[in-house]
Design brief:
The chain is an alpha/beta fold and 396 residues long. It has 13 helices and 16 strands. The chain has helices at 3-12, 26-43, 134-151, 166-170, 175-178, 199-214, 226-236, 250-259, 271-279, 293-302, 307-314, 319-328, 333-347, and strands spanning 23-24, 50-51, 61-62, 66-69, 73-79, 93-100, 107-111, 117-118, 157-162, 180-181, 192-193, 219-223, 243-245, 264-270, 363-371, 377-387. α2 packs parallel to α3 (134-151), α10 packs antiparallel against α11 and α11 (307-314) packs antiparallel against α12.
């Protein structure tokens, strides 16, 4: 995870103390711009504001920020309002240029400036296509069809979506790791941005796993931050595609792997985050809980530590200080933390289906790697199989 991305995520995890305003996805803004541009291509006039229909039936209206019309094309732009969500595309200009296509060609899509192109398998859009996700594509097709029906046109058009400056904004996202090059993705499932939902981050975790599976990788590593990611990459000589920017969402990553398994999964993190995992937390953010020094003291005793070490650990200010006391006494506290964390992670693969979906019934080997701030491996639970539960049998 880059430093800029880390800072962006830190903002995401800190909510303002006031009622939050919802916003609009890039897919919604692109749809509004494309609908206005197509109407202008047919009539010479841009509807402003322009209404679009969202997947759940809502009909918001958008003001146009810019318009242009030529002999064979029309362009309209909408400025994205992400509400109170710290979205990197908030305030970006989403442009749509509509050109006539061949009769019977339907709606085709093109990536303009700042919109990425898919280059790796595993995503919902195949390699070589503009990074415009399926739901925005459907919204765009329906908006074009609505205008075509109103004006008696065939609706055979090319829609080019552009985001000026999008390539620079994309550097703050995980697009590069997912194999999306040249810019941003046009996203959205409901058309609405829910502030501080972290849905985009979870989406990136899932898509990273999809790309790794489609690439035939047998091992991935989810890391909590930049230092642990660099350390686990060096430890196993992993490719960028094998690195999952898990952040605090251990549970979110493992639950997806449970239904989309890979042979080997490493969970890597610093001493504080991995201590929280050992305590039983699957969301490692501070709002979910802090490091329990009592747990560390118990684990140190289990590793052979003296009562005096336990007392010093309980008096520590941080997990790092507790680890330093254990290291001074020659106690492998990190290994105990890793083993306890492994047990918590393995439990995700047992029991009931996730969200009503039967699990795959395939073994997944899990490894826990605990690193200090200097990237030293200070705790390790080696790869061991955590069996996913078999699919449920249907009742007859």
């Amino acid at each position: 995870m880059t430093g800029r991305l880390s800072r962006t995520i830190a903002k995401v995890m800190t909510k303002p103390d006031h009622p939050l305003r919802y916003g609009w996805t890039t897919g919604t803004c692109a749809t509004a711009a494309a609908k206005a541009a197509y109407a202008a291509l047919l009539t010479g006039e841009f509807p402003d504001p322009v209404e679009v229909t969202l997947p759940r039936g809502e009909r918001p209206a958008f003001a146009l920020a810019t318009t242009a019309i030529g002999e064979c094309s029309a362009t309209a732009g909408v400025v994205k309002d992400a509400g109170d969500d710290p979205d990197v595309t908030h305030g970006a200009l989403i442009l749509a240029t509509v050109r006539r296509g061949a009769a019977g060609s339907g709606v085709s899509f093109r990536a303009g400036e700042g919109v990425g192109t898919v280059t790796r398998p595993g995503l919902a859009i195949p390699p070589g296509e503009p990074a415009i996700n399926p739901v925005p594509r459907q919204m765009l097709r329906e908006a074009i069809a609505e205008v075509a029906a109103a004006h008696g046109d065939g609706g055979d058009v090319e829609v080019e979506i552009a985001i000026p400056g999008g390539a620079a904004l994309a550097a703050k996202t995980l697009n590069g790791r997912l194999g999306i090059v040249g810019g941003l993705s046009i996203l959205g499932t409901t058309g609405i941005v829910v502030p501080y939902s972290c849905s985009a981050w979870i989406h990136s975790i899932h898509r990273g796993i999809d790309v790794a599976r489609a690439s035939g990788l047998i091992q991935i590593a989810g890391a909590t931050g930049a230092a642990s990611e660099a350390a686990v990459k060096k430890l196993h000589d992993l490719s960028e595609t094998a690195l999952i920017d898990m952040g605090d969402f251990v549970g979110g990553m493992l639950k997806y792997i449970r239904t989309h398994p890979l042979p080997r999964v490493t969970i890597a993190g610093g001493v504080g985050k991995m201590t929280k995992l050992a305590q039983g937390l699957l969301d490692l953010h501070s709002r979910r809980g802090s490091v329990d020094l009592g747990v560390l003291a118990e684990l140190a005793e289990k590793a052979g530590g003296t009562p005096g070490l336990g007392t010093r650990i309980l008096a520590s200010n941080t997990a790092a200080e507790a680890f330093s006391h254990a290291e001074a006494d020659g106690i492998a506290l990190g290994d105990q933390v890793a083993r306890a964390g492994w047990e918590i992670a393995a439990k995700v693969f047992a029991g009931k289906p996730v969200a009503g979906k039967p699990v795959a019934g395939e073994p997944v080997e899990i490894e826990i790697a605990v690193f200090d701030r200097d990237g030293r491996l200070v705790g390790h639970a080696p790869f061991r199989a955590a069996h996913t539960a078999p699919p449920l049998k249907r009742r007859r």
